[in-house]
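User: Predict the full complex structure for these chains.
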Amino acid sequence: MDIQEIIQPENLVYERTQCLTDATLSYCPGCGHGVIHRLTMEVIEEMGIQQDTLGVASVGCSVLAYDFMNIDMTQAPHGRATAVATGIKRCWPNKFVFTYQGDGDLAAIGTAETIHTCNRGENLLIIFVNNGIYGMTGGQMAPTTLPGMKSSTSPYGRDVELMGNPINITDMVSRLPGTYFATRQSVHKPGNVRKTKKALRMAFENQKLNKGTSIVEIVSNCNSGWKMTPAESNKWMEEHMFPFYPLGDMKVNGEMVEKK
Amino acid sequence: MGKMKGAVVVDVERCKGCELCIVTCPQQVLANKEAQVNSKGYHYVYMERPEDCTGCTNCAVVCPDGVLTIYRVKEEV
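Assistant: Here is the predicted structure of the two-chain assembly.
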């Protein structure tokens, strides 16, 4: 069968979602941000809530998310995305509100906002992209950098005695009573991408129930910051990030998931 | 039983040549154009062995830039 016979509108099985704008993503080649943007928008398109969703972008690589997502978005100062989202959600309780934050934003300068938002149980979704590094500013050490991991401000590897331990913030907030859904996923393989989409769908559905905060952590690569090719960085992530940040649900429907 | 035949359409200008789709493809259909670049200077991806494509959409699912559009048809034997 000829290729041109296959390429017909009735045979279409997958295309880029219309909820993303036509702008080319400003991220590095192979960055997980692109997949996470697309998944968020696919979920919004499937649920038909493009008109009713408000997003809050953070500071970091994802600062320009409002250019790429074709929904109403705003941008918050460093770490304050969940505080801004709280205000939006309280003004429009019937709208779907999400924040899109990286680890430098959410786990460093925004630790207080994140913890208190989860503790108050605000009905919003936090999408937390964890790549263990400050990607946009040049690969400096972040609170989530692994012990021994090299970054531009820890060129000999993170020394735990001098620089402290990495923080596992999703695990921490999952123990707060206000958190309704907490999970950790990744987007480096097709199966993981589909699981992440399912988790995002569940988190958006939870907002209808008004039960509490949902946090979806996505362990992602930063091939530029880690100084690797995209394929190598995904392999490195599997070998080094996942033992410290194990994938899986931590809290579902307000109940802690027992670790086996 | 019919065999699935697929086709991948590449948005050449959007492709950044990260090669994630190439390592993901279970049939090794895709490859980067070595000799040609798009207007941004990236070696974009193309279907090197189109006859093996099954239209599983795995490449499109992992593509960070939404470059790939997938078509699939069931070929009757």
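Chain A has a mean pLDDT of 92.
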